[in-house]
Specification:
heterotrimer; A alpha+beta; B mainly alpha; C mainly alpha; B: mainly alpha; 0% strand; C: three-stranded mixed β-sheet
């Protein structure tokens, strides 16, 4: 290939050669296009025949693939995608789920307080969370970690979250950590696709279909609040929670991030999160920070409270208090 | 008007022609060599096939096939990426002077 | 030669601007969420905002005290006591019931109070009217309102319970506030939580551990 070749000074012989080359290339491209079309048609015929799924399922998945980001959807589009996901759950797993796309309640900012004195390490909260949020049983994903710490320690990093013995152990106290739903969340800033954001009621949520699984948010979160689905999650059908929220406990797939959502499917209807409801000692206090009469405000006003890794400036909404 | 269209068509055709010829030349040049070189190519091709198989395993099983966890969430992938980015940057820096100074001798090996 | 104005600008003003704009984001979260909630003094009308049909299907009784948000309720206790009402047997007549030895409260283990000063049955139960509890001052306390009795000694916990830092709210964070009463979590005869095994365990993250 001569870079000095100049088109305007072509000799007729070269021009002929070029044109025959051009027609040869044209023939080749035509042949290639025919092969590609034939191959594609064969694949589609195979698809239509039920290899990848029924026609209805394929059309639902097609629409789901090309839907907008949740934040840009109108309420109608949100309802549509929720209906599609319900129908897909019925077709794929034969379960009847009720998915909601409920908007945040006005005038609400959720806050959470954890009593370090009251927690005895029973881990009822962890069990309830796993069941409520349809977490993967195969890799034992758990949003909540309970650290067993010796008296005198304050940071969970030196605690032991992998204990399994009779509790409470002597000379130890228990501290539970989960996503802190920071008001200044580093994971939201780190996400390259804006798949995670903070809702107006304070909950940091993930649109699972928008997540590309880059795990940048795990690197950004200082509290290890986020989990990644390394494998396709396995949830037994009889243990599945059927009342789901689009941003909450609907079934995720491999390659998607997930996190504690303060049980968005419960809290937006006024119920407590599963962990707060399951705690047998009443160590967990949940409520609306903007309501001056709420229990969480009483705790913040009257108890000695602190937040974990306060110096990082993430402004978490998860306080610890002692009696 | 027609001559301009013809000019554009021949221009595009020649670009396609040159690119195709370049690709063909690269392929024939890189595949030509002695026996030892051919054996070396076969070994590399075997690694490629292994890589494609590993990729399909990863697609089916999910990233759990890499044995990465939430604690080591990027692992070898990020190390590989940052290293190769450095290598690519170095390669660009080496080649750049030959294009800036339009020095044919610098193009040589 | 005197330095021109442009060079002076570059030397001093540019770094100053950089400092201002760099320092700005460092102070962006002025007060943060703490300031946000401290500024929130308007009462939250959750009856209107949240789904109003939040009445719990449990029997509850209104607590005689008020918390900052007004009235609140606690669950009843009498319907959960198997042998209530006590005066069916304890009515100043000799107790003659079938299987008297078995149901004569023999199974109750009373571990309440310190070892030096343990409580006795009459520390809480009224001698005259067995359907009621009795405080130190002789005030009769209904079993549904046992917090009045417990709060005599455990006044700090009672204050926290009224406010919300002790105890547990039942099922809902919004709507009518219904909380567990003292005996809903604590067995009044041995109130300390027992040791038990955790409900679940957390497997190690890497297989090597």
């Amino acid at each position: 290939m001569d870079p000095q070749k100049n088109k305007t000074s072509q000799k007729p012989a070269e021009k002929n050669c070029q044109q025959s080359q051009a027609s040869g290339r044209r023939e080749f491209l035509k042949g290639a296009a025919k092969v590609a079309a034939f191959g594609g048609a064969a694949m589609l015929a195979g698809c239509g025949g039920g290899m990848l799924g029924s026609k209805e399922e394929l059309s639902l998945r097609w629409k789901e693939y090309f839907k907008k980001h949740y934040r840009l959807m109108t309420q109608e589009e949100k309802n549509e995608t929720v209906r599609r996901l319900e129908r897909l759950a019925k077709l794929n797993n034969n379960v009847n789920v009720q998915m909601s796309s409920a908007a945040p309640i006005d005038g609400v900012l959720y806050g959470y307080a954890f009593s370090v004195t009251r927690c005895k390490g029973y881990m009822e909260c962890v069990a309830a969370c796993v069941k409520e949020n349809n977490l993967d049983r195969k890799s034992n994903t758990q949003y909540i970690r309970i650290f067993e710490m010796e008296h005198g320690q304050m940071s969970p990093e030196v605690g032991n979250a992998k204990y399994f013995h009779e509790v409470p152990a002597e000379d130890h106290f228990y501290m539970g950590v989960q996503c802190n739903h920071c008001q200044n969340p580093p994971c939201v800033k780190a996400c390259p696709t804006k798949a995670t954001w903070q809702e107006p009621d304070g909950i940091v949520v993930v649109d699972y279909d928008w997540c590309i699984g880059c795990r940048y948010c795990i690197a950004a979160c200082p509290y290890y609040g986020r989990r990644f689905n390394w494998n396709e999650p396995v949830v037994p059908k009889e243990e599945m929670t059927k009342k789901q929220h689009y941003l909450g406990n609907r079934l995720r797939h491999k390659g998607q991030m997930e996190k504690c959502t303060f049980c968005i499917q419960r809290t937006r209807t006024g119920r407590l999160p599963a962990c707060a409801e399951a705690c047998p000692t009443g160590a967990r206090v949940f409520g609306n920070l903007l309501d001056p009469d709420s229990e969480i405000r009483f705790v913040l006003k009257n108890k000695k409270v602190f937040r974990w890794k306060e110096d990082l400036g993430t402004d978490p909404k998860f306080w610890y208090f002692i009696d | 008007m027609e001559t301009t269209q013809n000019n554009i068509r021949t221009h595009i055709t020649s670009i396609i022609g040159e690119t195709a010829a370049f690709v063909k030349d690269v392929i024939t040049w890189s595949l030509s060599g002695g026996l030892v070189y051919q054996i070396y190519l076969c070994i590399l091709a075997a690694f490629m096939v292994l890589g494609v198989y590993a990729y399909f395993v990863q697609i089916n099983e999910g990233l759990a096939a890499t044995n990465m966890s939430d604690i080591v969430s990027w692992g070898f992938y990020i190390a590989n990426f940052t290293f190769l980015v450095g290598v690519a940057a170095a390669a660009v820096m080496i080649i750049l002077p030959s294009y800036i100074f339009k020095d044919k001798d610098l193009h040589r090996w | 030669m005197k330095t021109p104005i442009s060079k002076i600008c570059l030397r001093w003003i540019l770094p100053a601007l950089l400092l201002i704009f760099a320092a700005g984001p460092a102070y962006s979260a002025e007060g943060g969420v703490v300031q946000t909630y401290k500024n929130a003094t308007a009462p939250f009308d959750d009856e209107k905002q949240v789904d109003a049909t939040l009445s719990l299907p449990i029997s509850s009784v209104q607590v005689t005290e008020r918390y900052p948000g007004g009235l609140f309720w606690t669950e009843t206790r009498k319907d959960k006591i198997q042998r209530f009402s006590c005066s069916e047997c304890h009515n100043n007549k000799p107790v003659r019931v079938a299987r008297a030895a078995e149901i004569a409260h023999g199974e109750i283990v009373l571990v309440h109070g310190s070892e030096a000063r343990p409580l006795s049955c009459y520390s809480c139960h009224s001698k005259e009217e067995r359907d009621f509890l009795e405080t130190e001052q002789g005030m009769k306390v209904d079993m549904d309102h046992s917090y009045q009795l417990c709060g005599q000694c455990h006044f700090r916990q009672k204050k926290d319970w009224v406010g919300g830092a002790h105890g547990k709210r039942i099922s809902y964070w919004a709507g009518r506030r219904v909380v567990k009463n003292c005996t809903g979590c604590h067995n009044p005869h041995s109130p300390r939580f027992e040791k038990r095994w955790p409900a679940i365990y957390s497997p190690p993250l890497s297989k090597n551990k």
